[in-house]
Amino acid sequence: MNTETKIPNPTIERLAFYSRPLEVLLKGRIPVVSSEKLAGLCSVNPAQVRKDLAYFGEFGVRGVGYDVRELLMEIKKILGTDHAWNLCIVGMGNLGKALVENENFKSRGYRFLAAFDNSPQRAGERLPCGLIIQSARKIAELVKALSIEIGVIATAPRNAQRTADMLTRAGVKAILNFAPTQLRTQDRCAVENVDFTVKLENLAYHLAKEE
Amino acid sequence: MNTETKIPNPTIERLAFYSRPLEVLLKGRIPVVSSEKLAGLCSVNPAQVRKDLAYFGEFGVRGVGYDVRELLMEIKKILGTDHAWNLCIVGMGNLGKALVENENFKSRGYRFLAAFDNSPQRAGERLPCGLIIQSARKIAELVKALSIEIGVIATAPRNAQRTADMLTRAGVKAILNFAPTQLRTQDRCAVENVDFTVKLENLAYHLAKEE
DNA sequence: GCCTGTGAATCCATTCACAGCT
DNA sequence: AGCTGTGAATGGATTCACAGGC
Question: pTM for this one?
């Protein structure tokens, strides 16, 4: 099944998910994995794994399973993580600083090429990673000059929308938003929200339920 | 519709979502809101808003709408955010440090009562918020002593599972996991994952798709 | 015998459309 | 007249179950 079917969003989310245990298996020199094994490692249904992969091609061998290295490569190709992406980040408070240095970004080929903040006392500061914090006024200029594709928003909630506007106008194609606000963008720009207070409230709900 | 129907998970996620614009409306002294207005602010369907709320009671007035203050209170009661929760955090790298100080946690009544790290050179350090980093060996003792209900994991991926085990054994009822690993816990303990690399890969996929 | 790939069946969530209250 | 609350209809995604290839 390789025709131009619409791919469900949960599928591509899980693809990213599958890649993590696959990396572990690869390091452990395990050559082959079955859908059942992989599903177990991700706590999903084996049929789900097979169906997800089948959207993109026939990567397995019947009676055997999937070649770990090959499958991982295919997933990376699908997700576009087979090459690096250029990021910038806006809002260099504690969270922003933690994100630029974050190992999980680096190890997966996401590189921060610029860091912005609109408070004058932060501009000019040199970060441990070597970047120097730029005034937010420079967003338009630097996004273009450095061909930045993805913008990360780590500002206070009240500045998030304004920041998103600046980023999209500068030509960024996607935004990862850490502010707990619903952003409005023209649909040329994809947005993903990372909102940990929502997750916490989820937990609180389940706890409150059992008194 | 108030009987013991199973509540869909997306519903309770959206409830947290609705509360944000409601807080803004409350501050702006807007007394009443319609499902259509609220839906617009959250980019969802108005019928969705009504159905979500109807799971928990009849909070609206036909022909009028919802009383903002009352609705917000009801949602908080449902989510269990009408009272504070006790948290601890494990893993005091950049991300951990950023999270303990984070405004969004504080403003919603989540308070960090303890911070742990298993590297000896970090233990003893005093954080800006006043907490002193404790050795991870003290988890069992302090979780009990401080009646900590929710544990936050901000360790390196390879330590996440071990940390989760310690936390659950210590009696924590829920875990918010920032490490990009699938945790295995006994089902007495709820887990929510905040995985921003998955979100980024999502964005990468959509960008890669349009060359 | 084993494990993939996939139509069919099931399950779950969203949206529609309207009856019912103010 | 206006907006909620909700059964019914739709639309998606997950799971089942088995045919097909190693």
Answer: 0.94
